[in-house]
């Protein structure tokens, strides 16, 4: 498989450092540009909603942050699986580098959701399935980070973290389908693979912001993985004396 | 401009939402970058010493 071969070739730490050094400045610059365009579109060009008025502008951060919160967890769990099964040296570094960024997106999702819920639902928070499962996602990220750092032996911490990340995957379908399975204040998905019920004047800035968040995540993942590889190399050099 | 900033009466919700996103995502970006720079400098020092 071409893709499999590409992943195997990139998954060598030295090669990752070379390739990411080339890509990082471009991805970071692109993220800045796309986010600037997205913010202007979301805050200035996009029209107010006919029911929600200007409060709908919160959607342009809330929804992309929610997408990223789940996507990053899925990536972290996939990397943990690769780390556990194939003992790939870059996989657990990728998972550990992704976790704080995923936690940040989840926090943004929760906080902006609360600020949107207050004027639209009349409450900052309800303990319903969607909100609670996203809060659990946030704690899974924090638990993973704490567990990885809780062992004197980093290899054991990484292993324990990988297992937690994999167990936590059951939470992702609960988040996704919570709005269909249970009664909730939260609306069901407006955008599915088959189409969207959102007007194009709001759909476009939403998608631009989502791409901006993905690019930001890609840049941060590279920066954090490079940092961890640098620190690992420095530790090895110090041990050699 | 004042009308724009008022966000149709939702200013108290819209601006904090964007503010929190800026602080949290800007914060993790800054932290990631500073730690990256520190890791590069430490490694450079070690490699120069040998």
Descriptive account of the structure:
The complex is a heterodimer of chains A (241) and B (50). Chain A is mainly α. Chain A has eight helices and two strands, in the order αααααααββα. In chain A, strands 1-2 form a two-stranded antiparallel sheet. Chain B is rod-shaped and about 65 Å long. The model of chain B has no long low-confidence stretch (mean pLDDT 94). Chain B has helices at 2-6, 11-49. Chain B is mainly alpha-helical. Chain A binds chain B through residues 43, 48, 53-55, 57-58, 61-62, 65, 100-101, 104-105, 107-108, 111-112, 115-116, 118-119, 216, 220, 223-224, 226-227, 230-231, 233-234, 237-238, and chain B through 7-10, 13-14, 16-18, 20-21, 24-25, 27-29, 32-33, 35-36, 39-40, 42-43, 46-47, 50.
Topology overview:
The complex is a heterodimer of chains A (241) and B (50).
Chain A: H1 2-10, H2 13-45, H3 59-86, H4 89-121, H5 129-148, H6 154-167, H7 171-181, E1 191-192, E2 195-196, H8 200-240
Antiparallel strand pairs in A: 1-2
Chain B: H1 2-6, H2 11-49
Main sheet of chain B, how many strands, which sense, barrel?
none
Q: Sketch the topology of chain B as an H/E string, one letter per element.
A: HH
Mean pLDDT of chain A: 92
| Alpha-beta classification of chain A | mainly alpha
Ends distance of chain B: 61 Å
Low-confidence stretches of chain A: none
> How many strands in all of chain B?
0
Query: What proportion strand of chain B?
Result: under 5%
Using DSSP, what is the number of strands of chain A? 2
Brief overview, please?
The complex is a heterodimer of chains A (241) and B (50). Chain A has 241 residues and is mainly alpha-helical. Helices cover 78% and strands 2% of the residues of chain A.
